[in-house]
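Known limitations

Files may contain more than one protein. Parsers should not assume a single record per file. Below, a two-record file is shown to illustrate correct handling: read the sequence, read the token line, then continue until end of file.
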Amino acid sequence: MIALRRTGWVVMGAVAFLVALYSLRYAAVAFGAWPLIDQGIRGVITQVPVRALVHMVIAPIALLVGPLQFVPGLRARHPKIHRYVGRVYVAACVIAGIAALATAPYASGGPIAGLGFGLLAVCWMGTSLMGWRAAVQRKFELHRLMMRLSYAMTFGAVTLRLQIPLGFALGYASYSAMSVWLAYTSWIPNVIIVLTFWLLRRRRAAPALRATASLSRVPPLQRTVP
């Protein structure tokens, strides 16, 4: 199980790194270059350049540093680094989320796509801030859940790109055309998967938690075996 988790983390981190690196091409727009940028997205950038580019350049930072938050050894041996990276992650999510929300009405896929991306921005910022607040309040179980949900939405940048070939296979002519459903399928399944695993883990842990709670109610002298 531990080996499987490590493998999953390595795969997640690798694809996140590659997508983040690829997404940073949007920074070239500031210098007049448009490398491999879809015409529909180019139209959005042309309409609202500051909002769109802030989101497109800052969001990859969250995608890049997010996996570091899920390294148990880093949390245990270097808590200060964990907290610092966490602050960078949350700041990137909030800044990119505000820019995404402001850009959503101009989505190349129209109002339906804009609604999906707008909902994503709100939920993304909300879970990130709730996760940070829970850590400050030392509610670590809630903190872990919120940050997992937050990164599930951040990872939507990866799942969106993985789904684009499916859109072309289904006959869609462009990213803009398929973004009507990508605005939802890129992140909602990720959230469902995280919640499902969290609920399953809680269910498996429930008997042990009940036993611990029952034992804590027994007077100390009665816990000893005669």
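...continuing to the second record:
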Amino acid sequence: MRPTILVVVVAITLTGALVTASAFALTRAPKEPTHSWSVNIAVVGDSYSAGSNNGVVWPTLLAQRTGWSVANFALPGAGFAADGQGGQAFTSQVDRAQGAHPRTIVIVGGLADQGFADTGFVGVGAADALRKIVLGGQQALVIGPTWFETPIPASVQSISVEIRSAADGAGVPFLDALDPPWLTKDQMQPDLSGPTDEGQSVIADKVAAWLRSEVAG
């Protein structure tokens, strides 16, 4: 075989190999980017979590400070027994939260239930909400209501006791936010309706410290 012919044959062979390799590379499915978080949380709560005249709320701060995925479903006026403007009770919020497919649902007890203290409705509502989470396959965690001074009103203490009892009955971890109260009066809005941004920051740190020991990384 002449040298010229040999060169041509080699060139054709190499070109064919490159074309085959290129075709193989093009036919491989591109790797799609994946977005996952080690902790994926949904928050159920009232105005303390939803915010009231706040520039920031604790669920947002929790996400920023931990890098976790945190979806906030809290609504003002909601509670285990209190229904706000209708369809806002914690059981309804749990339904919406489950639609986001979180790994963990955290319910934060609020003060809208004060009018139902000692009626048993708070305990029943708490048991229903927690049962729904457990049956849905998510990790359930519950935090009692907090306050901003001592002595703590009997109605607030009663709510916390009922929520703790429901949590114990469901085998769900409970965090007491009254012993001592998480907030001070200076960390509340002037009308005492909810935390200031500073108060929201305090709640975010308290919740983060607890969740680090409760959620799976």
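Parsers that stop after the first record will miss the second one. For reference, the second record is described as follows. Strands lie at 40-44, 69-72, 104-108, 139-143, 174-175.
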